[in-house]
User: Fold Shikimate dehydrogenase from Pararhodobacter zhoushanensis.
Amino acid sequence: MSAAPSPVTLASPSPGLRAALIGAGIGASRTPRMHVEEGRALGLDYGYDLIDADQLMTRDIAALLDQAQADGLAGVNVTFPFKRAALDHVDSIAPSALAVGATNTVVFGPDGRVAHNTDYAGFAEGFRRDIGTQAQGCALLLGAGGAGGAVANALLDSGVRLLFVQDVDTAAAEALVTSITARLGAGRVRLAGDLRVAAAAADGIVNATPVGMAKLPGTPLDMALVEPRHWVADIVYFPLETAFLQQARAKGCHGIDGSGMAVFQAVLAFELFTGRKPDPARMRATFDSFT
Assistant:
């Protein structure tokens, strides 16, 4: 499998463009409306569908990608639980996805299936806008899956000097630590080990697990480990105010919800699918219009 050509070839804007989101339990996603309304604002005939593996009763990402491409889609966004697995079913991998080890955006075009990752830049932009003057020396990341890899790299490239990584899948956490160490050198990332020790050392705690989603309620760690001095961030956005954020804010923590990552990853994916630059403020307004 080769790296993607540079510059990345974008889908050509044309009438009847269609894209979709592939995931499991995604009925509450705000992504379709952001894409469709932005397409309408730019005068595009642009549709965006949901391909929900839970509704289709399948976890065969290869078959889902095959069908989406056969249906003539310009590309698909990919979410939980397929962000890593989808990399095995593309023709080339853009640097953004190669660095993270996962994809959330697959473009179908003249270069075949090209895997991108807009989660990295999406989280980084939302984090930059919302972190303010909070200390960023050390952070604890919960979750080393497809989204966790993007968030880990974004945190370390956005000011965090030391990152502790924890995942119930120890092998996934170890693989992420190894990957980041290869890219940034020793001393920037460690396995969390004892969460009490890692949380005590951290300035902030980030949830990059699916815990907190409507279908997976709860908190990703014992909230007794969260102190008022911590800033906390969550990538879950349905619900926007997760139990993790609610309980942390109640303690006085500075909180960052999943809206920034959700909006800015969609901004970048929209451009990859359509070849047109969207208006981030307009897409944010669409996101915020949900009740």
In short: Residues 1-15 have pLDDT under 50 and may be disordered.
